[in-house]
Amino acid sequence: MSTKYKATTTEEAYFITITAVGWIDIFTRLNQKNILINALKYCQENKGLEIYAYSIMSSHIHLLCKGTNGFVLSDIIRDLKKFTSKKIIQTIINEPESRREWMLEYFQKACEHLKKNQTYKVWQNGYHAELIYSNKFIKQKIDYIHNNPVKDKTVSSAEDYYFSSARNYSGLENDLDVVLLDLF
Question: Among residues 85, 91, 78, 94, which one has the least CA distance to residue 119?
Fold first, then answer.
């Protein structure tokens, strides 16, 4: 298996994107966004995940992060995807969701080609990890992460988007703590 775009080391930071199969807009509902926030918090507290920037978009999440304390980022992301997949499906089934039928059907069809016996597939394979190699690259990726909701016309200012670390960097309330970097 190729290691290109995989975070197979510890203590090195990566820019990653985790995307829903079919780019389905799962995260238009607050309950689904909270699943990600709570799972990321758990990984910070128990799995050595250190987050520098993030943004939860409607169909994907961007992270600038690393694994610490001997935890390998690829293992953290694998566990995060596995856990959140189950919680997302559980939430679609158990809570009000007008898109329930077609979403569940889509997630089921995404499993048809898999060798492994699986009922639903929520996340695309991989997470397109790019190793952080310079301060310029860090600034570029953080700007990209924070401006994604602006580019998407969800908000007019990055710090107005609640599910982004742009709020942390602006000193505003946020549900997820990040390690703030000096962006020169």
Answer: 85
